[in-house]
Structures are given as structure tokens and as C-alpha cells.
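User: Hi! Is it possible to get a structure for several chains at once, not just one? Here's what I have:
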Amino acid sequence: MNRRVGAVWGAFDLQLVTYAALLLCFGLAMAYSNTATAAVGVFESGSVFLRGLMWAVIAIAGFLIAAAFDYHWLKTLTWPLYVFQLGLLAVTLSVGSGIGGTSRWVSIAGLQLQFSEIAKVLMIIVLASYLGGRAGRMGSLLSIVGAGILAGPPFVLVLMQPDLGTALVLGAILAGMLYMSGASLRWLGALALAAVAAFPFIWTYVLQDYQKARLTAFLDPLADVQGAGYQLYQSQIAVGAGGLFGRGLTNGSQNAAGLLPVDTTDFVFAILAEELGFIGALVVIGLFVLLLWRILVSGWRSKDPFGTMFACGLATWILFQLIVNVGMVIGIMPITGIPLPFVSHGGSSLISLAIGLGIIESINVRQGRAEW
Amino acid sequence: MSVFLRDQPSIGPSRIRFLVFGLAVVLAAGALTARLFALQVGASGHYTALAATNRTVSEPLPSTRGLIYDRSGLPLVTNVASYSVKVRPADLPESRRDEVLTLLGSLIGMDPADINVAIDSNPGSRYDSIRVAQDVDPTVANFIAEARQELPGVEVVVETRRRYEKGPLFAHILGYLGPVSPDELPDLRDEGYLPDDLLGRAGVEAVYEGALRGQYGSQLVERDATGRRVQVLRTEEQAVAGSSLRLTIDLQEQAYAEKALKWGMSKAHLKRGVIIVMNPQNGEILAMVSLPTYDNNEFAEGISAADYQALLKDPDKPLVNHAISDQYPPGSTYKLVAGTGTLADGKITPDTLIRTAGYLTLGGARFRDWNGVGFGLCNIYCGFGHSSDTFFYQAAAMLGIDRLGFWAKKLGFGAPSGIDLPYEASGIVPTNKWKLDTFGLPIYPGEVYLAGIGQGYDAVTPLQLLNAYATLANGGTVYRPHVVSEIIRPDGLIQAIEPEVLGKVGAPGALKTMRRAARTVVVSRHTYNLVDLPIVIAGKTGTAEFGTPGPSGYLPFHNWFVSFVPKNPWKRASDPNGYKAIQRGDSELAVIVFSYNAGTVGNSSTEIAKYFYQLHFGIKKDYRNAYLLKRGNYYRLD
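Assistant: Yes, the chains can be modeled jointly so their relative placement is included. Here is the combined structure:
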């Protein structure tokens, strides 16, 4: 039984906030660059940069509220939050809009929201609550099955949008959290093998042709340079043209020529690497490593298994998206449409991440005397 | 990392798993960094060069399409400048598509739905420009060119389009251009075509596509952030202009032919008609008119789907060149085949008499002569001149179906003539083998009778029939008809289209006899007062039944008149009937007229041909018999 005690704000992790804020600044700088080269006034209403600023302000507010909120309530509210998560995804499927027959966004008051991003942080809360509650019994297969049953419906709903990238992120979060929860390695290994065995079936019956084309394009971008390989080819040119020091903010040729589609979202790292060079890219990757370190430290220190599990889930999420997004831009991962955390322009993703960090801080500041 | 060594997590994951996770983070970051280093520091120069060529794009430089002139050098097709609006889907943000297309639609007066259709039916990729409108008003074009922010992905380019100076008069000859279809794109792309290119779809534009198009060049172009062209940096490869064409068709002859045909069709209330004029000495087409026609400028200006559907659905098929693309029963004009065959094979001589009668009986069926009583004992001049059916039933039976087919093919029937126009029908020459292949049955004797008089299975195009009589007129040489006389290359070199001999009939005596017989048709007044004209005309009429009987119990019929005149056509006192002149085989003018579903008192085709000869030779006196063109139930005038 946890006694609820006041927060110890001295335990607030300033480093964590700093690294996240710096990454956010990189994202805003890229939004600025994009806006400036598009010959639209940077502060003109509706510009990418202004919208980025607005989302940042909302995200900061979300972070502060989450940090101030006692995270223990999340355990109490697990089931309502789970239902809320499924509700968001169901709404997206029924009224959402997207490109080419997909349904990914829901428009509310003129803002386009991608509920599947919010679903990621909710998924981590639900799984942390469940796995934390089963601490000590993690050796049993039942824990793995239970977690799988919880993650299944959101996974399927996201896949139906269809949004392969987000579904993969949900799967990665589940796998990472199960591993860190102390689940039986033998069973996890067996499941991993089963997943590999099921791959040919999924390839044949589940994946759409365009998805397959995107997944295989990275193997040889030039094979279909006007189609699926186009973005990969252009983004590698952008990255390579950046060199050691980059061409300078707003000077990227690929950015200016508008040759790179989704250059403020999924492919933002390509523009970043061209304009800020290898040094800039290295700083961004370094910031991610530092941020992940601080999140893992919070999880390590938490005396509450929920806190540990939540931190591990958040770290898995950020790490997976980092690898897949940057890997895609530099041509070693398939195209999956997964954004780069904090840097890619996109309100829903940023708010979801900010709430996650806020919960980490809430965990940090509510550990001190919890065991008294 | 000291924190991990100092404490243990209270419950849950082991120290090892935290270490593994930490290691995964470091390894992932290391791998990404290593790849970044390789791209950005290792191979930077390579990609910098690629990026530079990427902002400057090599764009195709269209060539100027060749022009088309009539025989005398008057331009029939010219190129005019036109502002086209194009959309490049890759530069059109999906979220703003509706807004942009609505604005664009209101500017160029187009339904946004039609623009969407144009974009979605684009055969190329998202990175290819799609033409959504042409002939845009210059003021609107300027506005669109300036409104880059409001209309991302929309561009204005100056292109040339075709203008057909004479429109409907030459539509079936010249044809029109149409867009590349998705199926053709892969092949055409290899030949240098772009997804929004136009290529010849009908007429000379289609057959001479390769010569007219020329060769596209390329130019280096700098583009701005929205993908629009900022400036042309340099021409990499000059475009080679297309060659121009000179037709064998004379504008004046074509106008005369159309005038004569239109007169006859309106007097006789005909729905479809054809007139073709040809030089039998070399296969040059001097005029070719198929009515109804269409205005190919509608295609050049971008025909709307509704207008195109209307043309396609018109029962009289204005898009079809009936002169070459449809085949019809030739009727009595086909008696040329049995006549030539029996003479050439020695079955008859010009003096052989054959008994004609009101009808012949075969297998219990009666095969009538058109006048119901026959013409008594007839030689070939009498039989052909009066167009006796019973004469030619017997002639056909003497030859047999395969020998009849042999001579028909010698005269060019049963195969496309090879004219330089697309969509030519091949006609039908029935033989035993043909009927076995087609119906699995042998030819019946009655069918041989019918084949001899151009009924039954016989089917010809008007051009084939004209070419057969041109062969008769020139003494036995089958030429490939053609409508283009010269290809004029952009460097001024002229490539003349030489007459091409497809075959020789090889029975000069028989043909000489048949030329006299064709003159007998006119002299016998079978064609009324055609013999009174001051020129010597030989020819043959035809009345060809088709379809199913009408309310009166009679079959509907087409009528034909195919004719030719000697090189010097004017009558001379020394040759009162013109037999000497017509037998020389030096004709340079042959004319065929075809009246579809005629239903007239007399032979409308003969009257139309007569009017054309009057116009062509400037004969002042008018010999036309308008009363023969009245609607009537007179049946089987032959």
C-alpha cells in the first residue's frame, strides 16, 4: 500500500527536461528553415513555424500538468484510460481522414489530431500498470499472454487505419516492456521465433502492395526512383550533400528545391543533416542518448514497479522511433512513416511525448518517502 | 552509469537487463552515427554533386510538329501558340488539393471535378506534369503564373497546338492528335514520349506520326522551391523539328468532290456517302470525302467527354472514314471480276453469245435478272452494258468460285489496299477455303451465282472498288493508293513518295475488252444522259442489297457508280462513241461515288459523279437529273 505523500520537487530531473527542450529547439529550427525557404512569411498565420511554436506551447503545458499530477492516480485510472485509448482509435477509424483512403487524422476545431500518437503513451500507462502489478510473477507465460491481450486491440485498430508504422511502434513498446519486466526469456524467445515464422503469412495476406513497395525500396532506391524509392534517393542525396559542417540553416538545396516530400515530418532529419551537417546530426543523436539515459535512470531509481515499467516503455518508444526514423533517412531501414521524436513537426506526437516526460518527472518527485 | 552500480531496482527487471537496454541504446546510436559519417564525410562529394544536378533539372525540349500542305502547297495544318495549364501532383499538397483545384477551376472556367479526373487519369507518375487545360486566356495565364502561393503545383506553359485550316473538309484525311494512354506509356516512353504528349490518333497525323513529330531535345532548367521553372540555363540537345507533308490531294478537287456529294446527299436525303478521286497511273488520291464528317479542330482544342461521346454514338459514325474503314456489298460493279476472268481464262471471247433470260433456275430457286425478262442473246458488251444478272450468273459458274476469287484478288479485292491512312478494312472475297474456314461449309452453286454479281458474301471498301477500276483503266497495274506525295524534311530535303506497284493483272486483252464494255454502260444509256456530256466517261453502276426487307417487302440498297475518263477526255468526231479513247488505257482520272442506303428513283451515285465531272472539267451546261434523286420505290435499277 502506497501512502500518498507530497512531492519532493528537489528530485525534479532538470537534465531530462533540458535534453528534451534542446531536441524540440532543433525541431523548431527545422520548421523555421522550411518556412523560410518556402518563401512564405515566417510569422505569417498558418506557417509551419508558427504552428510548431503553438504545438510546443501546448506540449509544455501538457508536460507541466502531467508532472504536477500524482502519477499514482494513473494506476487507479488504468481501465478508464484503456477504454479511452480504444475509443480514440475507433473514432479515428470512423471519422478520420487521410491520404488515399486511409483514416489517420481527426480534425477538432481546425486542428488535425493524430490520436494514434496519444494512444502510444496511453498504451505505456496501461502496460506499466499491468506489468507492474504482476511484479514477482513475471516468470509465468500468463504475464506475457495478458500483456499481449491488452496490446492486441489497439494494435489491430491502428493497423486498420492502416498505419503500419504506429502498429510497429506499439509492438516494439510491448516487446521492450516485456523484456524489461523480467518476463521469461525462454517464452519471449519462442514468441520472437513465432513472429519470424509468421512473417511470410503477414507479407502475403496482410500487407498492401504499396506497403510492400515502401518496405523493400530501401534495398535499392534506384530501382524505382520515380516511385517508392524517390524519397529515399532524395533524402540520401540531402544527407550526403550536408558534409561535415552542413550548408547552413535554410541553405539546403533539397529543402529549397522542394524535392523532399514530408520534409518537416518523417524526413526532417534529412534536411537537418544537410543544413547542419554531420556535426549537427551527431549532436542530435547525442541528445537522444542523454535523454534515454535520464529516462532509464528514473526507471532504475523508482521504487514503484509502475514507475520502472513506465520509464522502460517510454525509453523503448523513443529509441525505436529514433532507430527507425534516422535509419530510414540514411537508407538502412525501410520507409514506415514513423516520426523522429521531438524533432518532427507534428502536434499529437509532441504532446504525447511531453505527457510521457511529465509522468517521468511525476515519478521522480514522488519517490522520496513513498516507502515510509 | 554510476547510478546503475549503486542501487538495485526494488522489484522487476534485473541489473543485467538494464545493462542490455543501455547497451542497445549505445549500439544503435553508434550504428546510426557510423552510417551518417560514411554518407556525410566519406562520400560527401558524390552527393553534393548529385544535389546540384537535382535543383537544376534536365527537361525535355519539345520539337515543332511538321505542317501539312495540299497538293498545290496551301497549308492545311498549322501550329498556333496556346497557354496550357499543367498540374504536377507531387507539388500539390494533398491537404490543399480541394482548395487549389476549386480556385483553379474558377479561373479557367472548368469544373474542379473534371480537373480531378484529368489528374487521376494521368498515365505517368506523381512527378510528371499533367495538362488540365489549353488555350487559356493570356490574362488568366499570367495570373496563374504569378499566384504561386495560392496555386502550388500549378504551372503555365506556352505550347503549340494544331489548327486544321479546313476543319471538316479534311478531317478524315488529316485526323487529329490524342493523349498517350497508360497502356502505351511504357513503350512510348522508350521512344522519347512524355506522359502528357499528344500523338496522331487518326488520318495522316497517325500514319506519319514518326516523320511529323521530329525529335525532342533537352534543356537544363533551374527550379524554385515550389518546383516551378526559374530560368532555362542552357540547351543540352537541340530539338529536331518534324518533317512537313505535301498531300496528293488538291484543295480545289476536294472542295469540288464535297460540293458534288453534298448536293446529291441533300437532294436524295442520304445519311452517308463517299466520293474518291484517284489518278490510275500512280495511285495518287486527288480527293477523298466521307460524309458525315467531323471537325478535327474540336480535338485540337481539347474535345469534352460529352462531345466525344456524341460523335461516337452518332448512328452514321462521323468519326469513321467510310471510304476505307467500312466494307459493303459491291453489287453489279463487281461484274468486272467475272467479265475479266472469263475473258482472261478463255471461257468466252468478245464474240461469245450467252443466252440471258428473266431468270435462271438452280436447285429449285429462281435467280432473276433485274429487268425481269432478260436481254436475249448477249455478248460481253451487251451483258456488261445492260448489267445483265443472268449473263454474269453463267459467267461466274463457268469460272467457279475459286477462279472468280483468283481474279478478284488480282484486281486488289480481299486485302487492304495499303493506303497511308489508318483503320483500313480488308473486304471479303469468298472462296471454298474462305467459306470452310469461316462457316465450316463448302460454297453452294447459288452462292457462286451471287458472288458473280457482287452480292452474297462479297464485300469491298469504296477505295478497293475504285482501285480495281483504276487498274482496269491503266491496263492492269495495281498501285498502292496514297494521300501523301512528299515528306519535306526540316533541312529542306524532299523525299518523294514514289508510285508503288502492288501487282499486275496480266491479261491486257481482257482488260481492253472490259474497258470498252464499261464505255458501253454509258453509251447504252443505262446511265441516262451521261453519254451526252462532252467528255468520254466509262464506268459501272451498282445496286447492292443489304440488311432485311423494309415495309414494302424490298431489301434496302446502296448504289455505286465507279468510273474513269481517258487522258484526253474530250469527245472527237473521229471517235463518236469514245471507244478508241477509252480502250487506250491512259486514264489519269477515276472517280467512285457511294450512296449508303440510297432508296432513290435512279442511281444517285451516277448523278453525283456527273456533277463532279462537270465541276472538274468546267462543263458549263448542267446535265444533272434531279428527278432521279427523289425518294421512290423504284427497285433494282441496274
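Chain A has one domain: 9-365. Chain A has a mean pLDDT of 81.

User: Great, thank you!
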